[in-house]
UniProtKB/TrEMBL annotation:
GO molecular function, one term: DNA-binding transcription factor activity
CC terms in the record's Gene Ontology section: cytosol
Residue span, HTH lysR-type domain: 1-60
Protein known as: DNA-binding transcriptional LysR family regulator
Keywords, alphabetical: DNA-binding, Transcription, Transcription regulation
Family: Belongs to the LysR transcriptional regulatory family.
PANTHER family per UniProt: HTH-TYPE TRANSCRIPTIONAL REGULATOR YBHD (PTHR30419), NITROGEN ASSIMILATION TRANSCRIPTIONAL ACTIVATOR-RELATED (PTHR30419:SF8)
Keyword Manganese: no
Lineage top rank: taxon: Bacteria
Taxon lineage: Bacteria, Pseudomonadati, Pseudomonadota, Alphaproteobacteria, Hyphomicrobiales
Species of provenance: Oharaeibacter diazotrophicus
């Protein structure tokens, strides 16, 4: 026997409200419409659903069982409505974000945690990607947005880039590095110490080559490569090695005081960090909400980062 789910919902509402009129008002229906539904349900099951002469209305044993199922349907309907509203507002759903490893670890992962504290119904899937892989993942709809440094290049009409932070790279080292005791650094002194190689595919690799060209060298003493951000920080803190890192990444580590900026101005790429998205096709409301949160967070943060950058006395 198949029963009409709406009739079960109305039965549950009437019993919970204590009367037909009250139950109808709870559901946003008229009293005559609910009375007809209950009469149809009784006719369908062939048994009474209410005890006669009882006020407020009291169910028969069968009526109580059917009302229990009606409450389950009401709860499921409300959850479905909440899910739709949450999806449309971007307060629930899935955000798939790809990003360059060091920056994701240093800054974006913290922002993901802060965002989810505000929006606990949003799930975030993060993947490490450099620009070529990120473009492919966006085109294949495998991610919703990317956070990546981009220079002067044309990604084509299908992409939108929102800058969140101007790019600046620095030479990083431990706080008590011997070069920090120099009053004025000379270019050749950078070659007296070992270096950490950037991750393969990272734009920092080309930046390291620019440094080599600027100081007239063809090669550096690479002693460590392939590490994560934390492993690079740990390595720098225990050695006299140098590494090219985004200033913002070193800034994010300032409270730990394990790495600092070597005040030597290096050639800067024409590159900014920002949010990369497709311009065509539907967008996830949750991803748009997250992107707006990141952009707002950096709007406040970039002024603090700039003040720290200005405090460094750059030398040649």
């Amino acid at each position: 026997m198949k029963l009409n789910e709406r009739h079960l919902m109305q039965l549950a509402a009437v019993l919970d409200a204590g009367g037909v009129s009250e139950g109808a008002a709870m559901l946003g229906l008229t009293q005559p419409a609910v009375s007809r539904s209950l009469a149809m349900l009784e006719a369908r099951v062939g048994e009474p659903l209410f005890l006669k002469g009882r006020r407020p209305l009291q169910p028969t044993p069968l009526g109580a069982q059917l009302a229990a199922q009606g409450r389950v349907i009401i709860a499921a309907s409300r959850k479905a409505s909440d899910a739709v509203q949450g999806f449309v507002r971007g307060t629930s759903g899935l955000v798939r974000v790809g990003g360059v490893p060091f920056f994701m670890d240093a800054m974006i992962s913290r922002m993901i945690g802060e965002f989810q504290t505000l929006e606990p119904e949003v799930t975030v899937q993060q993947s490490y990607l450099n620009l070529p892989e990120m473009v492919g993942a966006l085109e294949a709809k495998q991610i919703d947005l990317g956070i990546v440094p981009i220079g002067v290049l044309d990604l084509g009409p299908g992409f939108e880039f929102t800058e969140i932070l101007p790019g600046r790279n620095v030479v990083a080292c431990r706080p008590d590095h011997p070069l920090l005791r120099k009053r004025r650094l000379q270019a050749h002194e950078l070659t007296n110490f070992p270096w950490v190689a950037p991750l393969p595919g990272s734009p920092l690799m080309s930046d390291l080559q620019m440094i080599l060209m600027s100081i007239g060298m063809s090669d550096l003493n690479i002693r460590y490569s392939g590490g994560s951000l934390m492993s690079v920080i740990n390595y720098l803190a225990e050695t006299d090695a140098l590494a090219v890192l985004p200033f913002s990444v070193v800034f994010a580590q300032r409270k730990e005081n394990r790495v600092t900026v070597l005040p030597y101005e290096i050639p800067q790429p024409n590159r900014s960090l920002g949010i990369l998205r497709r311009t065509v096709g539907p967008r996830s409301p949750a991803a748009e909400r997250f992107a707006a949160y990141v952009a707002t967070a950096f709007e406040d943060l970039k002024h603090i980062i700039k003040r720290h950058e200005n405090a460094v006395v750059w030398g040649r």
